[in-house]
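The freezer alarm interrupted the setup, so I double-checked each line after restarting. Inputs confirmed:
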Amino acid sequence: MIARRWIITAAFVVAALVAIVLQAGRPPADTAFMRRQMDFAIMSTEARVVVYADTADHASAAVTAAWDELRAIESRLNRYDPASEISALRAAAGHDAIAISPSTARAIEAGRLWWRQSRGTFNPLVGSLVSVWKQAEKDQRLPTDEELRRAMDLLDMDEIELTGSGDAWRCRLPREGMQLDLGGLAKGWAADEALGTVRRCPGVRAALVMIGGDGACWSDDDWSRPWSFAVQDPLRGEQVGARYAELALKHAAVVTSGDYYRAYTIGGRRYSHILDPRTGRPVDHRLASVTVIHRDGAAADSLATACMVLGVEPALALLERLPDAEGLILEHADGGLVEHRTSGFSRYVVSGGAK
Ligand code: AMP
Ligand code: MG
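Predicted 3D structure, all chains:
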């Protein structure tokens, strides 16, 4: 209880910031539904849960359920927490299978699905490569070809042994050094999981779960107004909330992958935090950001990362090939931005973007 209060208090510090980033949906003027919102820090960023329900108690219970779910997911997936399931898998790599939660098993399965769909450009086993680049940054030198080769030898998602059903799941990473890093899908996936939890709570009519700039929303069929999402302007990445476009959605996940927040800096040069599993190296092209809309949060997040790896034309081809995905790709050009959209993206845009 004490920890929770502390987090909520801390969240107020960042609430103003979040309020700019997130454009939470507004209720129809004539409804009597109760709105509850909670802002808190999670997954190294700020999160917001908004719920509309028939009673205040129902709305509050649903918000709390989402918060609990997100904290549980974070504690299982955080690769920097030695007590997480992801860390336990890493420690046991090359040895025995270990018991994991059904939730983590689902996340790994989703990762494998989108690894296949993206033809390996999204790869949750990228952890071994991430470690090589982190160490290189620490030592301020580029990784050697041998270091990259060794890490790239540990990227085959088909080698992961995942067995079980119901509540009993086991997983084994068969080779020493194999490391899962679900960072490429964690936010979209977690937002969607928490949204699912909220939807199962009684009395809920509409809900939004945002983690940083990524999130998932839903409203029941009678709910007349969509949720609105802001696409961050990647040229003003340091200015959180600077909006490139505004989107309106009723039931979808929206995830953005960009080059503007995190990077490895080695010898004064910035390298993207997104690595190309085909080369072992940070992606190096003119993509500023990719925003993907998909019903499924893991899909949206995985695809956004995959598109950053692929570059404009192959990324558009991948998204067009998938019937449920839409995307907005922003590319650096002469100090400005050039925009590319999939054929169905425009129906979600309410303002901003290239005319
Ligand atoms: P995102 O912000 O969703 O694009 O995820 C980026 C994070 O995913 C990075 O910080 C890494 O932890 C991880 N990552 C980097 N490259 C890849 C990749 N090619 N596939 C999957 N995850 C990746
Ligand atoms: Mg992603």
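Quick read of the result. The longest helix spans residues 56-77.
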